[in-house]
Structures are given as structure tokens and as C-alpha cells.
Amino acid sequence: MLGIIGGTNFKGTKILKNLKGKTVATEYGNVDVLVNEKIAFLNRHGKSHNIPPHRINHKANIKALKKLGTTKIIGICSVGSLRKSIKPGSILIPSDYVNFWGIQTFFDSRIKHITPELDEALRKIIIKKSKQAGVKIIPEGIYVQTTGPRLETKAEIKILKNFCDVVGMNLASEATLAQELGIPYAGICSVDNYANGVVPKKLDFETVVKDSRKNSASVMKILIKILEDSK
Fold first, then answer.
1. pLDDT value at position 214?
2. 92-125: buried (b, 16+ CB within 10 Å) or exposed (e) per residue?
């Protein structure tokens, strides 16, 4: 079963057709998902899309997908570009991530370490299916996770752009927790805006949301191709 973590841009799409709602109980909280025998879709911001980024229950989300039997997870993430060369409207498949703060773990009561990484085999599948779907992608890049709900300051972006390519608020937490539970995880990043200060134009959240909808069609093409070829 493929687990997909995404947002409101999935509403009414072909991918969610014939999926049924289900509430999964975990020790970290209840999670609403849409499922069939092939897919488990989870809206990270909740069924009503009202959970802000700093309140997302990543532990419950990943544990719920584990309980449902997902064998791999693809996280769809809206990101800001840290480089002028990575333009809004691009699709980037991250190859690594940075997360220096707010790191989440299931290992709260025992000593255990993982070496965090995105699953390379799943990344290669996404890249291959993107090409087959006719979607131009950027096949690698470094994702850095910050803490919401506010966007980053210009000074923060000046630091981050020296080391990373895109910035977001969710992928690193999901990837780390999935790896701790032994579930391969990879991401598809929708580059929806330039990060604060990369270009002179002022950044606001309403613009980010508006631009993310424009990019959703390309993301859907990739996922549909992945699902078609997994039947």
C-alpha cells in the first residue's frame, strides 16, 4: 500500500476517487485518512485543513500509516525556493534534508539512533515516473525544514540559501519518523514561491497558497503514473 501525505490541492482529484474515509486510532491521537486496498491518503493539515504547520501531529500521522500497512510513503510538500535558478512552478525531488531544530522521534524512552535519509529507491521511481508522465523535474536538491507558522525572515534565508535549495515546514519530520518505523519515504516538492528576500517582491501567505494550486496538476500527473504502474 502506498501512503500519500498531501494537502487541500488533492480535493476532487482522480487520485481520491473511490477512497473511503476512516479514522485510525494511535497512541499519539486519532487520524482521519482516505483509503482503499492500494492507497492511504492523509491530509497533514487535517480533514478540514485547519491544523497549522506547528500543530501537525506528525507522530500520529506516520503511526497511522504504519498501522494501515503502508509499505512506502510519498510526501507532497509546498516549498519556497532559496535560489533564483529554481523558479516557482518547478517540481523538485529532494535528495537530502536539513533539520537542526524541533526534531521529532518515536524513541522517547529508549536509546536508539538512525542515520536519517530519504529512500533512494523510491526517489528513483518518482524520477522515472515523472519523465514517463512528461513532467519536467529537478531530480535532486536539499530541503531545509523550519518551524511555522510564520515564514522565514530575510536574514534566516540569507543563511539557509548557502547550504540548501528549498525550504518548507514538514518533510523532514515525516521522513525521520517514517524511517524510524521502517517505512521508505521520499518527497515531491512543489516550488510555489521564492523564499523571503530571494527576489525583491514581497512574500505573503495568500500568494503562496494561490501559486501552489497552479503546480498541483503536475504533481497529480506524477502520482497518477506511479499508481497506474503499481496495479
1. 74
2. bbbbbbebeeeebebeeeeeeeeeeebbeebbeb
